[in-house]
Design brief:
- Keywords: Oxidoreductase.
- Belongs to the nitroreductase family.
- It holds the Pfam family Nitroreductase.
- The chain is 39% helix and 15% strand.
- It is of the alpha+beta class.
- Strands 1-2-4-3 form a four-stranded antiparallel beta sheet, sandwiched between helices.
- It is globular.
- The protein is built from seven helices and four strands.
Length: 181
């Protein structure tokens, strides 16, 4: 098993997949990792809708591809697409969010989605989180209630290339401060 920092370095946004199916038990491991994510007041305001049916998955991919801007052209290669649905927060989380002017469910969904993707990376499965997609179309395809938001889609598949790309990140000094901004 890799160390945590090795896993974080291994996890990347994959945009080229093989057509190899993802095993059901591996998808379940990713869901369990998301289930274990922390959330404000233990609200767990998420639901992961796993789409592995090829016809439905293709329609989901179409909802993610933007011909005009060229966004997400790789989505049709994904063998699984997961819709991350934001569920209502519990009363304490909702109240705390109002008082502190913070969107706790959105923060919580991000944490759970990253847990999901880190677990996938450990299993050798590539992922890419998408924020650009036709939410109305996805909602209709998956029969998601109109009062729910879908902040993310996650494409999944075995990477076509095992090659690790170098991660370009700002220097530590640009993203952190010690005892002051």
């Amino acid at each position: 098993m890799a160390s945590f920092i090795q896993l974080v370095k291994q996890r990347r946004s994959v945009r080229a997949y093989t057509d190899q199916p993802i095993e059901q038990d591996k998808l379940m491991q990713c869901l369990v990792a998301a289930q274990l994510a922390p959330s404000a007041c233990n609200a767990q305001p998420w639901r992961f809708v796993v789409v592995d049916n090829p016809l439905l998955r293709n329609k989901m991919a179409d909802a993610a591809v933007s011909g005009v801007l060229g966004m997400n052209k790789f989505a049709p290669q994904a063998v699984v697409i997961v819709a991350v649905v934001m569920e209502p927060a519990n009363v304490t989380s909702k109240l705390g969010g109002l008082i502190k002017k913070k969107d706790f469910p959105l923060i919580d969904v991000g944490i759970a989605a990253e847990h999901f993707c880190l677990q996938a990376a450990e299993l050798g499965i590539g992922t890419c989180m998408l924020g650009w997609f036709d939410e109305k179309k996805v909602r209709a395809l998956l029969e998601i209630p109109k009062n729910r938001r879908i902040p993310l889609l996650i494409t999944m598949g075995y990477p076509k290339s095992e090659e690790d790309r170098e991660k370009f990140r700002k220097p530590i000094e640009a993203i952190s401060g010690w005892n002051k901004y």
